Structures are given as structure tokens and as C-alpha cells.
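lol ok so funny story. i was supposed to be doing the assay writeup but got distracted and ended up predicting the structure for this chain instead. priorities right. anyway since i did it might as well share w the group, maybe its usefull for someone
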Amino acid sequence: MIIVAALYKFTPFAAPEALRTPLFAVCTDHEVMGTLLLAGEGINGTIAGPRDGIDAVLAHIRALPGCADLEWKESTAATQPFGRMKVRIKREIVTMGVPGTDPRAIVGTYVAPAAWNDLISAPDVAVIDTRNDYEVAIGTFRGAVDPETESFRDFPAWWEKNRERFHNKRIAMFCTGGIRCEKSTAFLKAQGVEEVYHLKGGILKYLEEVPQEDSLWDGGCFVFDERVAVGYGLTVLPYGLCRACRRPLEDTDRAHPAYEEGVQCHRCVDDYSEADRARFRERQRQIKLAAARGERHVGSGRSGVT
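and the output, tada:
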């Protein structure tokens, strides 16, 4: 059984580049894979590995400046959902692109999963999904507003165009694991919105703690690894992944005439050149050859952060 740990922490790192090599070493020494991002504002990522390996990496991270109270969310996978380990230096651990947005200085009110249903059912509350369009497409909370953004960077511009829709409303926001809501609620507070709330622990914590019979969530929750999507109790759902555009695929998507495994789906069939598709076909050929040898091709694993 593989343990999957999703984590983030906003804390000032004076020299994040100095943290990269020791962090990468402890991950690889303990057979842990995934992606961790380091920036001056903190750390973010998802990792997977054996129980003792995850414990070792989490202990290393908790020893970093300001990370002693690190919180993380765990789930399991039958096989390793990542193909490699990456530790990257970024300007932001979740990219919004608005200078000065600092969740350590100002942030929305945290709402526990057990109290979330009552909040979002209130008539004076507008619920906003801060995730990307392809994530929202496979699942969201009932009645939630979908900004239809392709990237989290698009959210500030969307808010500027739509803010009048939410006049005299309390705002409740949610995302996969909580980090995008840290930034988006801080942004809205800075914009003068007085009552802003967000789901503590994100959708993953809600699906883990709230019984299905009491839930206001419909569909699956997209995750940034080879499991693709999870449902209640964080059980893995039967989704695939387009290796070109990285969107989740249902059985009907894979049955579409435009679908070609490892190369394209019907949503991205016009987005790539013939040269791109040739590269994708060669990658897929190498993946199949590796599988025939009982090996895992390094390009077959997906790495991402929530």
C-alpha cells in the first residue's frame, strides 16, 4: 500500500534554493515520489511512498523554518501514482500572479467540513469553486459558481469582471486541498470583501469526513496524480487521463472517435501539431515497451500539486 500525502504551508523561507537539495535527497533515499514546490512564501506539494518513507519526509519538512505545525492530508493508492520525484523552486507555491497577496497577513475564515453544509445552504452565501474548468467538470458542490478558468492565474481577472454579481453576499470558496483558497480568500479580503469563508482542508477533507448521505458534493474530485479522481472516503474513481492535455477522461471520452491513447482526446484534438502528435505517439510506444519489460516508463507518471 502506497501512502499519498498532500501538504502545504505558508511560511517565509529566506533562501528556498538552499532547502532543495537536502529535501530531494531525503525523498529519494526513502523511495518517495511526487512534486514539492519551494518558494519564499513556503512549501506545497503531493508525495507518495511507503509509510516509513512518507514519515521521514514529513519529519524533514516539519523541521524547516515555520513548519513545525505542518498539516497534511493522507490517502492511499494501490500502486505508486507518480513516476519521479521533483523539487522545484518557484516564485509562488500556488501561482495567482498578484504581488502582495499574503495569506499569512490576511485570510478568509476557515470552516470545518462538518459546518460547511450549513454555510453554503444559507441564502445570503455565494459559493465559488476556485479550481480550473477541467476539475470542476467532473465534480463540484451543488449550486457552486464555476468561474470557468483555465488557470488559477485567471481568477483575479474573473473576479474583477464579476464582482458586482456578489454584492451584499457572503462568499464561501473551496478547492482541492485548501491552498488555492488561502490565496483567493486573501485576495478577496484585500479587495474589500468583508465576509469570506473557505473550506478547511479542501474537498479532500470534506470527502474524507462527511458521510455520503449527508453530502452536498456531486461527482468526483480531480487529484494531481495517476489516480486522477477520488470520491467519498477518498476511494479511487474510474477515470483515465489524456496524456496530451492532462484532462480527466471518462469511459465515454475514451470511446470517442477522436481519442487516441497517449496522443489526444476529443477536447484537445485541434490543439496540437502533427509534430506534437508524433512525439506523443513515440512516448506512448516507449511506455508500452517498458510495460512489456515489466518496467515503468519515467514519462508515464504524473506529477502535480493541489
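The first helix runs from residue 17 to 29. The CA atoms of residues 76 and 139 lie 20 Å apart.
back to the writeup now i swear
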